[in-house]
Amino acid sequence: MITHPAYMVEPWCLRETTLNLDVLSQSESVFALANGHVGWRGNLDEGEPHGLPGTYLNGVYEFRPLPYAEAGYGYPESGQTVIDVTNGKVVRLLVDDEPFDLRYGRLHRHERLLDFRTGLLHRTAEWTSPSGRGIRVRSTRLVSFTQRAVAAIAYEVEALDDEVRVVLQSELVANEQLPRAEGDPRAAAILESPLVPEDTAAHGTRIRLLHRTARSGLRVGVAAQHVVEGGERTAYTSESSDDLARVTVTSVLRPGQTLRLEKIVAHGWSAVRSAPAVRDQVDAALAAATSSGWQGLVDDQRGYLDDFWARADVEVDGDAEIQQAVRFALFHVLQAGARGEARALPAKGLTGPGYDGHCFWDTETFVLPVLTYTAPQAVEQALRWRYTTLPAAQERARQLGLRGSAFPWRTINGSECSGYWPAGTAAFHINGDIADAVVRYIRATDDEAFEKEVGLPLLVETARLWRSLGHHDHHGDFHIDGVTGPDEYSAISDDNLYTNLMAQHNLRAAAAVVERHPDLAAALGVDDEETADWRDAATRMSLPYNEELGVHEQSAGFTGHQLWDFTRTREDQYPLMMHFPYFDLYRKQVVKQADLVLAMCLRGEAFTPEQKARNFAYYEQLTVRDSSLSACGQAVMAAEVGHMRLAYDYLGEAAMMDLSDLEGNTRDGLHIASLAGTWFALVVGFGGMREVDGLVAFSPRLPEQMVRLAFNVQFRSRRLRVEIVDNEATYTLIEGECQDILHCGEKLTLTQGKPQSRPVETAEAGPAPEQPAGRAPAHRGRMVGHLEAEATHS
Ligand code: BGC
């Protein structure tokens, strides 16, 4: 049984009942609040102690040098890194001359609770100062889903036993000091003092700071307004300087008396607007939020989330920990994308500086599928962002000697930031991943305006890339040579099967969309000859297969490579890339993360059931899961080929990635793709959800540890509910006109008020496949009732 050291297991919230300073940074990621535009790490209100302070605005970054020991043609000249912008979270408290600092005095109680239904982060602390003054602090925080520039805090301090003099300092802090990054290359390069002051103001309870980034030239503004409620002996002042604006409230509290401060914070930024315009932008956002008031923001947050959960909730009976984890995951996936509005969706969302705040294929392949069926407007915006970066991708393709567009492996502003070619630019599959997300979104929403304006150019440009990147051999077969697939332990290989299958899908989808919109396509210069070329390349796409072993090859020749010696690899030598040279990983059969197995999830129709079973078993024994993106794909395929126990264990790994800090780097931010993978494993894995010929299809099957699984999905303006219990699946149309679906290949026509049930098919699986020595996923126990507590917050 996996025990849970830090958090209580509850269905609708995450509760931490004691404060452990050793894992403060992890908890700051886990308790981060964001809306896709603004991100506040879960730092303590008083600013210190902290693991890693963090306030992020999506799209705000600074350039940083990318020095090369040996430079080469086409290497990106500079990188981009997310920066910590002005911190509006800070509310310091002085109790009779002593700072409220949890490292001193006596902490009797400390609880934090993130409520997935209200979107509020609550904190309660009871503390006695070193000189013996007892207080209770209660704070509640939100980052608004309905007003994207806005975050807010309600902070209360209560005197417990004696009269106390308290001082609250509510601050905006720019260029705050950050701890130095450690040696892990995945952690962000931290830039010191990235913000240049431009303007500052303090009037009454209202404060503002305006800054600009030195090199990227982005203007960043933040303003705060306060409402103070205290006794007669309460007074306030405000002041501001370059990097600090502050409202100071003083009061004397009798025992039982409370001082309350409501702080509403508005953030804004712009690459083009002048200082006065950005000033006015944050002032206006603040005016709107102040007119809603604290309670208005709280009510709107609940309304927004009620709507989200009605579309997205997943219910799990039989494993309380997974129930909590999937809601935690969905909440954070929503936070990453909800109000991104034509900006990138970074691998860590806005929860930390890991991976320099870059966006990868994680977004299109793992995160957007979840949002497509639960919050499609967020997908539209994320793909619109890709569309706005087309000029940079076209320019990159030209630089590489290619046609069409070459989207960056990692980026914030749309230009390539990867300085490591083999696992960067060579991972061309990102172009197919973007196309796949476009196709999925269009199919699930019928959004024709999007298809014409955004989908068509994205599909055309990526198809052009594939056509120019690949070539027909003298038999006419189409090959894409010298690319890196999802498995980063193989690089620059020929005919990576995943890449080729995604490219094939991309080429066909582009030809189909051109057919639907011939005039618009003609305006992009597409003619019949070009689409015929795409179709031909797709038809002749080479898909390497080893007849002797009866398995597909991850890439041409892969199965002929020497096997990695797992028996001589120690447990502490994982992740392998931190302990072995890449050249050795590259030339052996060892797989970092699901690659061919992921291809079988996304392009299932390209394989027979027998091929799936054999491929799965073959690649299981090579896959070490040195990436958090691996387990969910393995869960889906394990379920499909009938290894339900294994699928369940992989689900556990994806689900607990951050709650149990399985990779030891949750401090740098959450693994948003792995969180999304929790939904993936449950809905696509155990729900068996796929799209078949324009219909949404299910082949549900539960592991014996799970008693019931129910989920809602949105498809073509309909809301469906699927419930699997007692070997029966029930489909209900909750909203929208009648809808055809497939249950294990049988067509069912659903109408509202008439649920339909069908028996679940059982799986016949062969012997359980093996993983590399020591790399089997942790065996999940049955979690019924384990640490389960009643939810006390509604
Ligand atoms: C994985 C990539 C992933 C990146 C960001 C790497 O470790 O191998 O597939 O895109 O992390 O999550």
Automatic annotation (TrEMBL):
A GO term for molecular function: glycosyltransferase activity
Sequence ranges assigned to domain Glycoside hydrolase family 65 N-terminal in this UniProt record: 16-270
Domain Glycoside hydrolase family 65 central catalytic: 327-679
Protein's GO biological process: carbohydrate metabolic process
UniProt superkingdom: Bacteria
Residues the record lists as binding substrate: W361, D362, K592, Q593
Matching InterPro entries: 6-hairpin_glycosidase_sf, 6hp_glycosidase-like_sf, Gal_mutarotase_sf_dom, GH65_N, Glyco_hydro_65_C, Glyco_hydro_65_M, Glyco_hydro_65_N, Malt_Pase/Glycosyl_Hdrlase
Stretches the record annotates as Disordered: 751-794
Chain ranges of the Glycoside hydrolase family 65 C-terminal domain: 689-750
Similarity-based family: Belongs to the glycosyl hydrolase 65 family.
Entry protein name: Glycosyl hydrolase
Organism whose genome encodes this protein: Streptomyces mashuensis
Lineage: Bacteria, Bacillati, Actinomycetota, Actinomycetes, Kitasatosporales
